[in-house]
Write a structure and sequence with these properties.
single chain, about 140 residues, mainly alpha, Methane Monooxygenase Hydroxylase, Chain G, domain 1, 5 helices, AAA DOMAIN-CONTAINING
């Protein structure tokens, strides 16, 4: 039960993290500053590379939705359904972990990417651990029948 409380606490902490306002990244066109958003780099170079954190966030959000469904299924005693949801989450997390990072991204973007990769890695371990427990439980239930 403490594992489920841990998952719920982790999910709530994830959703309580304040999102950065995308409007704060845009400069005022009337500003007298001549710096570019990429600290002197051509603004067109970094745009595709800036998408990696959003891509990882998308994977992470999808995986946490599946984990949430799995936890609810467990709470209702639906072990087989929980296994299905955890496996979906595991596949999403594996896909996220295998997403390559571009050769150059800004330091701010790199921090976001590192943060999401750490979260993804942590959740991969927790999902894998939970799947092992549920598979054992499901195996014991089927041998009892």
């Amino acid at each position: 039960m403490s594992f489920m409380k841990g998952i719920i606490d982790s999910l709530s902490s994830i959703f309580s993290v304040p999102e950065e306002d995308s409007h704060s990244q845009h400069q005022n066109p009337n500003s007298t500053s001549t710096s570019t958003p990429m600290d002197g780099m051509d603004p067109g170079i970094g745009v595709p590379n800036e998408r990696i954190a959003y891509k990882l966030k998308g994977y992470f959000d999808l995986a946490t939705e599946e984990i949430d469904k799995a936890v609810r299924a467990e709470e209702w005693g639906l072990v087989d359904d929980a296994i299905v949801y955890y496996r979906k989450a595991q596949r999403i997390l594996i896909e996220a972990a295998s997403t390559p990072s571009p050769s150059y991204i800004s330091s701010r973007e790199l921090e976001k990417v590192k943060s999401y990769r750490q979260k993804i890695s942590k959740w991969q371990g927790q999902v894998s651990e939970r799947l092992q427990v549920l598979n054992r439980r499901a195996g014991n239930q089927s041998s009892m029948n």
